[in-house]
Amino acid sequence: MCAQKKVEHPKVSVVTVCFNAEDSIKSTINSVISQDYRDVEYIIVDGGSFDKTVDIIKENENKISFLVSEKDSGIFDAMNKSLSFCNGEWIIFMNAGDEFYNSHIISEVAPYLNSKEDFVYGDSEILYGDYRLIRKAKSADYLWKGMIFSHQSLFSRLSILKEKKFRLDTISADFYLVLSCFYDGFKFKQLDFPISSVSPNGFSDKNQLRVIFAWRDEVRKIHPGLKTEIYYAERIFITKMSQLIKKIIPGPAVDFIRKIKNG
Are 98 and 196 a contacting pair, CB within 8 Å? Predict the structure, then answer.
């Protein structure tokens, strides 16, 4: 890996991929265009929505660097497609329904986007109805335990993503990319503050078991061993039990228990 030239104010590409997101796209757009960092480009890749998503996007087209709306093969295909439209040194994906934690986040992260780092990430705020929870990221050393930070809180060097791309044969392509990059020796920088605000009802949350199985399969290739097998066996068991409890206990009760548990 060759050394990267340091830029005082690196250009950041923010990408939103969406499909039929008329109920959530506006808040995401407002979050992006309200950033006070001076060198941001905003790319939106829509999967050919047939609701009002594109109309809402076009209401702000003067603040959007590039928009494409056409059929794709899913979220990772759209994310790959976006890479060819980006001109920044760094990229972050803030998809429909996701938001930056505040309007200063890119400015706060920018000093860490330097020649020493390849990936810079932080915590996430999870929006549980009328209350919020900060989900702390973990050291990249724990990536063998799964996605230990949200991709909405990850700034990646664009050149790396353009070279590697997201795989289209797995539901955890974002995890596979950062896992393989970590074990290939790329540099990860952890920040101790929230970068994004996200809903707990994303794809990974709705498909927890499928995602955990996919994580395990990828980790087995890079970090095999008894520790890995025991960890994922326990995680799969706990997830199954949690799903069973949610079926038995009414939703409001689950939310109340989660709220009490997290203070």
Answer: yes
